[in-house]
Amino acid sequence: MDVTTRASGHEHLPLHGPALMACTHSSYPDFLFVGKAALRRARYVRFMCRADIWDVPGVRRAMTGMQHIPVDRQAPAAAYLTARRLLAQGEAICGFPEAGISFSYAVRSLMPGLPALARETGLPIIPIAIWGAQRIWTLTPENDAKGPGPDLTRGRVVDVTFGAPIAVPPDADLAETTTALGHVLTGMLEELQLRPEHRPAPGEHAPWYPAHLGGHAPDRREALAYDSVPHNALAPTWGPPTPDPRP
């Protein structure tokens, strides 16, 4: 597959020792491109991924062998403890705090687990935004025949940006820290989305681009019908407002 991965800000990822990262999520292969970008710092990232991936034949052994972490969204304590142990061993851990792909391509509700890990371990959170991989393979709203499906068009560009580490003190309020993370991730993601090479052409039907920036993906309100969000996720006060359903 002819895809160019562009990484920036990767100097924020330490060359050695534990690292805790939080990444936006807009496509199935996001972890592949983030992992590739981290290799520029000679780091092999252990990703926190949905537990049902381990149910796919032939995948379980590979995921376990690479020390990725299965996350049961309804009972995430085991994943938290595994991530804490790997951090203590000096590993680089990356989670997707949205706990799923955002149908709106805006940063959706966030889980507080990564801020809790940062507060307990004393590690800062390294925010990461990724954009471009949604053109390759992402979720499609079931009732939208024009939604984005797998597309192996050659010459795609995927941008991965590492932001400045966010310090989390031991007395940090988790809701406030999670909210701050949401604002940071939103700013980083929109900076990528607004780059000319990532914008749709004039008149193009673009279900792969956020509605609040001129695309045709579901807006925040429409996405609520598709998003599966854990009950303990923090609702967004960051990013675009939820449109009023009234005409």
UniProtKB/TrEMBL annotation:
Residues 19-133 form the Phospholipid/glycerol acyltransferase domain. One of its GO terms (molecular function) is 1-acylglycerol-3-phosphate O-acyltransferase activity. SUPFAM superfamilies: Glycerol-3-phosphate (1)-acyltransferase. PROSITE patterns: PROKAR_LIPOPROTEIN. One of its GO terms (cellular component) is plasma membrane. Keywords: Acyltransferase, Transferase. One of its GO terms (biological process) is phosphatidic acid biosynthetic process. CDD domains: LPLAT_AGPAT-like (cd07989). Pfam families: Acyltransferase. PANTHER family: 1-ACYL-SN-GLYCEROL-3-PHOSPHATE ACYLTRANSFERASE, POSSIBLE ACYLTRANSFERASE. This is Unannotated protein.
